Amino acid sequence: MITILLGSTMATNGFFYLPTPGGDRLNIPTKYIEELKNAPDEQVNFTDSFLEMFMGKYTSIGLKWHLHPNVVKKDLNSALTKLMPAVEEEIEYALDALMPPCNNWTPLKMADNFNQLISRASNHMLGGTDLSRNEEWTKTSIDFTTDTYLAAVRFKQIPAVNRPLAQYVIPELRNVRKHQNVARRVVVSIIESRLRTGQRPLDLLQMLWDAAKGSDKTPEFMAYTALPISFAAIRTRSSVPTHVLYDLCGHWEYIQPLREECAAVQAEEGSLSTKPALNKLMKMDSFMKDSQRFNPLSFRKAIPSFPQTLISYTAENHSLVTFGCVVHRDLTLSSGITIPAYTTIGFPAYAIAHDPKFYPDPSRFDGFRFVPSSSNSTPYAPQQQQPIFTTTNASNLMWGYGKHACSGRFFATNEIKLILAHFLLRYDFAFKQGEGRPKNWPYELHNMADPTVEILVRKRK
Q1: E strand spans, 75-172
Q2: Are residues 199 and 190 in contact, defined by beta-carbon separation less than 8 angstroms?
Q3: What is the C-alpha separation between 39 and 327, in angstroms, rounded?
Q4: Distances (CA, A) of 274 to 63, 72, 340
Q5: Distance separating the N- and C-terminal Cα atoms of the chain
Q6: Are strands 44-45 and 331-332 parallel, antiparallel or unpaired?
Q7: What pLDDT score does 322 carry?
Q8: What are phi and psi of 9, to 5 degrees?
Q9: Which residues pair with 321 in a beta bridge?
Q10: Secondary structure letter of residue 403 according to DSSP
Q11: Which of 79, 184, 287, 405 could make an SS bond with 392 (beta carbons 3.0 to 4.6 A apart)?
């Protein structure tokens, strides 16, 4: 974190290289973001940064990602109003299934429970209860994310010339292939059943099938696509409720106002999953956003077998580069500076999120900073529109920006709000006595909420 903050302010012309185990990344001043946000893919490619980061040649991450982003943007987002009530039901069902009685204060590793909740809610959106209540698929969707990440980490320790052979001996990569087999067995069966019966449920899997053409319109390709969708959901979302929970425990004065907001909206709307209800959770949205400002989106899963020396390799860097792209041809910017071909670039998102030009008193956590006209919040720059959790612009890069901004962020935001709202309404929670907000676990460009922390949880009377 210190490295990125200093680099973004002290480097010549604002450019600086950030060393990572995957290679140097060129951080670019934000004044160039408008030039780059919609650059043609053949010159500045977003997906190739995933291929590089997650060793996609061996893990499949970033390969054949041409179908689902457009379907999510075009079809899923327009159907959220109809989808979210069923997702809310799934979240309530999963809470009942996952949480112990908690009649008294009970220590729980809530990171694991939130990971399960995110997986089940996201899988319900993807394939209804056929996926969300399939234990084998739930385990595969979570473990695929972890094993893919670990496989990529291990590959980066191996010289490139040895990787074609190493792919057969790295345990996590063998696990990735097992997860792909599970996906084929589970998802192909669902698609074939729908084709036989003529059923057309409202879920992303059906939207993908309807949009697919040519060689993509096979049950096998649906299975191939389902895993990266689960990967994206768990990679970007599972950490958020855990970070929010830790921040609430550390700033307990926000718990009651947020709980009151949830209860009031639920009473007014009869549900928390309607579009008006979700939009009315403004304090929740603001708290999530300032929590994200300090804890950018990242992986959550622990890396128990990975060498601590490499986990700490970029501990000073924290996480905080976004808009990662690979430049395929020399790119000359408006200033005349040329970025060489095959350079991986990004913008220092953490530094931007702590720039006083955009965020007054940026080093202070203010959970209601983004609540419109709130007397309890730090005034936002008057010339700028009040941002919300899904906002993407030059000062809000946590979801990316331009044509490659995360198209699933609207579902993700709704999902996280529902999980947090129901947890707030059902449970009291606190750190153990004498404990405070745990430090995050950094690795490379990622920032994980510590999954080993136990939170005291008690069911509300």
Answers
A1: 106-108
A2: no
A3: 10
A4: 35, 19, 48
A5: 42
A6: unpaired
A7: 65
A8: -105, -25
A9: 348
A10: G
A11: 405
If phi over 0 gives left and psi between -120 and 50 gives alpha, with beta otherwise, what is residue 214? left
Tokens for 192, please give them.
Answer: 């074939």
Both structure tokens of 303: 């890396």
Mean pLDDT of the chain: 85
DSSP 367: T
Position 320 scores a pLDDT of: 53
Tokens of residue 461, six digits:
């009377």
Place of tokens 């071909």: 341
**Cβ partners under 8 Å of residue 379, min gap 6:** 360
Cα(332)–Cα(279) distance, integer angstroms: 42
State residue 279's pLDDT score: 96
What tokens appear for 144 in the block? 């695929």
Distance CA 427, CA 440 (A): 24
Question: With a cut of 70, which residues of the chain have pLDDT below it?
Answer: 1-13, 20-22, 235-236, 297-323, 374-386, 443-446
pTM: 0.88
Q: Of 298, 292, 346, give the one whose Cα is nearest residue 319.
A: 298
- Rounded Cα–Cα distance for residues 426 and 259 (Å): 10
Q: How buried is residue 200: exposed, middle or buried, by Cβ count under 10 Å (0-12/13-18/19+)? A: exposed
Residue 326, SS3 per DSSP:
strand
